[in-house]
Amino acid sequence: MDRNYFDLSGRVALVTGCSTGLGVQMAEALASAGASIVPVARRTQLIESVAGRLAGEFGVETMPVRCDVTSTENVDAVVDAALERFGRIDVLVSDAGTGAIGNAEEITDEQFRQELEVDPFGTFRVARAVAGRAMIPAGYGRIINIASMYAAWSATWSPVRRPTTPRRAASSTSRGPSPPSGAGTASQ
Description:
Strand content: 5-15%
Helix content: 25-40%
CATH architecture of the largest domain: 3-Layer(aba) Sandwich
Strand order of the largest sheet: 3-2-1-4-5
Distance between the termini: 53 Å
Shape: globular
Number of strands: 5
Oligomer: single chain
CATH superfamily of the largest domain: NAD(P)-binding Rossmann-like Domain
Number of domains: 2
């Protein structure tokens, strides 16, 4: 029996944080498997460029939509627009995120509050809207939440510490991103 388990033809994927980095890479992978893509981010010009490239390279339908995940109204409008256009959302990739990197004592309350609004709360807002409006009613859906590149590093290395020596959390044979220049731990 020939079955392509990676065929996503007829499926629709909404990808947040789809202006650069992992969001774009996830959208490319899903489009290469045949999924229609709804690239979502704050930077309109970038998501329009991504959408055009995905449509041209993979021959899939795309619908770029500007969205600020800190706004429930924005998120609900994006999900409604995607459902109006495609009638379904089968896959959600939540990759919207920020990166206030600095010493903890230098990060302001407002910077930290913004981190929370975008990263955990934004992820929740989008998942709630997609699950509630599309996936639960359809009885099907897959949600992929991307935490950050820092998940690849040990808890002793943090973007809010001034590190001195790099140390990987994973085995030396694993492949992943390199830490930012100068990243590491204070004690090794």
